[in-house]
Amino acid sequence: MSYGTTVRDDIGNEHPRKHLRLKERGELEVKLLQSDGEEKCAIEQKLRTQPVDDHPYEQALRKAREEEKSFLGEAEKRREACLSSIKDRDPRLRKWTCWLHESEARLDFYEPLVDMSYDFELAYQENRILARELPIVIALRRELLDELEEAKADLSSVGKEEQAAALNEFNEYRRQRKVSCAEEKEKIRQKHRQGLISSKALQNEQKRAERSAEEDILTKKRLLPLPKRRDRVRHIKHRLKVDIDSRWRVIHSDISDIRRKTPIEVKKRYPWLSMLTFPIPGLGQFLIGQRQKAFFFFLGTLFIYLAAIPYSLGVGNYRGKGIAGLISLAKDGKRLDRSIIFMIEGVIAVIFLVLAFLIIYMSYRDVRSTEKRMIAGIRKHNWFETRMVMRGKGFPYIVSAPAAILTIFIVLLPIAVTCLISFTNYDPTHQSKFSWTGLENYKAIFLGQGMAGGPFWRIMGWTVIWTLAATTLAIFIGFVLALLVNQDRIRGKKFFRTVYLLPWAVPAFITIMFFSIMFSPSGPLTTVLNQLLGNTDPSEMLNIKYTTWGTRIVLILLQGWLGSSYVFLLCTGILQGIPNDLYEAARIDGAQGFQQTRYITIPILLFQTAPLMIGQYTFNFNNFSIIYLFNGGGPFEPSKYGNLAGSSDLLISYIYKLTIQKQYQGIGSAITMIVSLLLIFITWMGFRRTKSFREEKL
Amino acid sequence: MKKIKSERLYLSDRPPLTPIKVVLLAISYVLLLLYVFIVLWPLAQILITSFNGNQEAYIIIGGSYSFSFKHFRYLFEETYFFNWVINTIVIAVATALLTLFVVSFTGYAYSRYRFKGRKASLMAIMLIQIIPTFAGITAFYTLHSILSAIMPWFSRQMFLVLIYAGGGIASNTFILKGYIDSISPELDDAARIDGCGNFQVYRLIIMPIVRPMLAIIALWSFIGPFLDYLMPSILLSDPKSYTLATGLYTLITDQYNMHQPVFAAGGLLTALPIIVLFIALQNQLVSGLSSGAVKG
Hints:
The complex is a heterodimer. By secondary structure, chain A is mostly helical. Chain A is built from 31 helices and 2 strands. Chain A has helices at residues 20-34, 37-49, 56-73, 75-85, 91-110, 118-156, 160-193, 199-222, 225-261, 272-277, 283-288, 291-313, 322-328, 339-376, 383-392, 395-399, 401-421, 440-447, 450-453, 456-485, 493-505, 508-518, 524-533, 548-577, 580-588, 593-621, 624-631, 638-641, 651-661, 665-688, 691-694; strands spanning 6-8, 14-16. In chain A, strands 1-2 form a two-stranded antiparallel sheet. In chain A, helix 24 packs across helix 26 (593-621). The model of chain A has no long low-confidence stretch (mean pLDDT 86). Chain B folds into 2 domains: 17-74; 80-291, Orthogonal Bundle (MetI-like fold). Chain B contains 13 helices and no strands. Chain B has helices at 2-7, 19-51, 70-78, 81-112, 118-130, 137-150, 156-181, 185-193, 198-227, 230-235, 244-253, 260-280, 282-291. In chain B, helix 2 packs across helix 12 (260-280), helix 3 crosses helix 12 and helix 7 (156-181) packs across helix 9 (198-227). Chain B is flat. The interface between A and B is large, with 100 and 95 residues.
């Protein structure tokens, strides 16, 4: 990297170098690139022999720096001298006045040095701003303080008699105003009686009259001597805070403007600091001189070295061994060690390490970009500027942090653990200690082997039938009902809508459990059904819950009953939104009622509800509660389904049985992963076609 | 008078009724009323059973009827119904509050800011919301024992709240983001010109406008715990700590506890407030659902 003869500031303007030695070097380097042969050697020689510390400019600069140091060292003395001469008693006024004196002194000091270095120029400019703006702030505060003093005196001077007199006057006014309000209302009522205004207008007018009376009384009350003066004090206090803060913000942004326009010259050519300090976030920022920013990164360092790394090594774990535990899964561990805990703590350790890595990377990027900018000539951010950046660009990250943490630990972590379990032999014989088995579970599922994997394809088949049948039935019922109810001539729309809403409004678990009771072997509906079929002989009695297809058909009908409400409501909403012009146009073109439905209503309905209907299919694919609560997945057919599943089990209830009841967590997790991937794939395909995705409006 | 009636002008917008249309209309009414019966009959049975003093442990339909509050008395005196109600309400309220707090910020951030990783994380959110909450059931159990070892006060109900809220973040963020997208950004710009910072724009401009949608999100998060059976059945073990769904289920499965009419009574008490809520707010609830069109 070459020094070049110019430096570039944050806005992009080029400035000539003021550092003469670097400028010389830069010029030589530029020449070096254009020359060749002997000339090149000569330039190289020059570059090598260019004096560094003995360079006249360096000497002058050093001298100036020393002067600056001694001048700044006397600042304390100047401050004391100044303090003793100030008459104000307010500590902030005293501080600021001293500050003003100091900046005036510095202004004089830096003025002759401006051409020597951009640092001096910046100091000069900064102090110029301070010297210009501080008197305004000081005057403002002094004025406000005086006003406050006066207002307070005013407040305490309110005599008891004065207040009492005013109060009397106010009470009198209130009484009168109330009377006048009543009169006004009476007038309005009279108008109403005469039939000049409607009863709606009567109400509104009366309310208006009451409100205006109330407002008048409140205004008067605020103007009483005590509240009025109290308000004034509060107002001044507020201004003391807000007005002065905003003046300070103006000063700060003026200064950062200057910082942006004044370049910096550094001798460094490579961003080596970021390379050296990246293991300790905060150190780089500290060395550059961004103390406050460094403090926050140091908190990150504390997290990395006191939490993340020890945890991943197994220190401070609940029972596990950090990352090592994730690999060993408590193999050869103590009797009480449980593999599942080792696994979860291992995953937590991985998450911690990823967070640690993120912090390190952020800090590295931060230091590196600051360094690179400084080499190019742009000054580092001061705390005010950093805060502005955080409030702007950092805002979305800061506010979504709680959501991110919750999602990582409550959603992602369990999913990751499930994914890992699917590669282990976590089953009834390996409850406390299990080990990695690779793809064994998936093999068992796909080949339909073993106790748990055997019925997989059967269950999968029923799940698909169930999803298609139950959802389609619900959608069909909902559709037809919506079309019927929303005909022009149907009366009592509100009644029908309310009734059809009920299956959705009653919590599903209640209806399902109730139907489960009704269809139980001696349940009321079973009896009714048998009477209808004429079965009286107990051996011939049809029993829904004991026959596979009986249960399945009832389940599908029941879901049709439950799910139709939602479809009905959605379709009704859309039907009401179809503009009437469409139908009128169709009528003019000669379309009959049926044709209108066929070519206008149904296409619009289908088109608008499609994504939600896909949602209904995925919902039923995972409809655990209806299966489990109705018949527990039964009836059981051990010859076909083994001992673990019933013949109405869906994949989801099968997973529940495997993992929660029968302790085949390995296989259960593998099925979970397959189901999740399938769902993601289907939804993804559906979502890709939606408008919002294609228009990149995400 | 009769003459006048027959000569009255046909003033309706609609074409006059033909005989075929009369028949079709009649069929429509028959179908609609039939479905009204199908909907109301089971619900009516719940209602009737719960007030029928002549019902014993098993429900019998068509038996004799005598009005009594005996099942309700049983519900309050012999079961933990009161505990279940309190548990469910506490969990529901906590879930709604937590969801609101978290989601209102993320919805705003995702709608209004173009930050690095925005699209990637939105995509991740999309995919996460498809994976059902049950995917992590094995981990939840162990995770809770680890958490409660560190923080002994951390109860299973609190964990349930975290699961409900955490599971809802993705879809609710999506819904709210869509809603905020529809608010003109010029409002924000105007506020910014007047000197508002990010937080103030959110608090003073966005918040009041999105309040209806926040209410819907809160409502759905509130209703969720009332309807869920799966999670509490896995996590809660003590009958006193059950929610309504798990608690009422014990009344029809437990051999010793079996009391089907009492279940009907409990179900009625649970369903009534929710039904009222749904009927009163049906339009808002449906619009909340349909704006989350991508939810699985």
